[in-house]
Amino acid sequence: MKRENKEELVVLVDENDKQIGTELKSKVHHKDTPLHRAFSLFLFNEDGKILTTQRSEEKITWPNVWSNSLCGHPSPEESREEAIERRLEEELGCGIKNLKKVSDYRYRFERGGIVENEICPVYVGEINGDLVVNPKEVQAWGWFNWEDFMDELRLDEVDKWSEWSKEEVILVDKFIKA
Asked: What is the pLDDT of residues 11-52, one digit of tens each?
């Protein structure tokens, strides 16, 4: 789904994920970030490796931090699944197949005076196509064996990795092993 070049809106929600308003993405992330809708994706290749990404230094939230494959916000007129497809194209230049919701997830983290406060279901899927990475979104990426990725997150003592990816990996691991 292609959209016109207009500023992105974020859906503000209550604790039950009921929409209570919208706000410009550029205005929503600060020290008192309101609760809003998001999604988080763990993207695998045909060899079962997980794609990890380092967030661009241009990002307002968690610049230069490594994380799972893709995170984002659905716009008011789209589902999370549609938003995943849109953001994959915008950030990583690829598609997805076998998209599955792993778990509901809600978090609030603070880093560098910025708060992330999201209802953020976790998804898994398989890459469809080649990566064509947008450097304004992602400055580096890599593929990990699943167990190595879990070890990397578990042993991270310098906050190289996003806080949400450290919690979400547990949910994805349970899903994979179920």
From this structure: 999 999 999 999 999 899 999 999 999 999 999 999 999 999
118 catalytic? Reply is: yes
Find, among 49, 28, 52, 33, the residue nearest to 41 by Cα.
Answer: 52
Give yes or no: 71 in active site.
yes
Give this prediction's pTM: 0.93
**Hey, what are 127's tokens?**
């890459």
Domain-located, residue 63: yes
Catalytic option among 81, 82, 94, 118: 118
> How far apart are the C-alpha atoms of 75 and 64, rounded to whole Å?
25
Which residue range is the domain that position 91 belongs to?
Answer: 9-167
Catalytic-role residue among 71, 116, 120, 163 = 71
Question: Is 173 within a domain?
Answer: no
Percent of the chain with pLDDT over 90: 90
CATH for 110: 3.90.79.10
Per the structure, the count of domains in the chain is: 1
The answer to whether residue 177 is domain-embedded is no
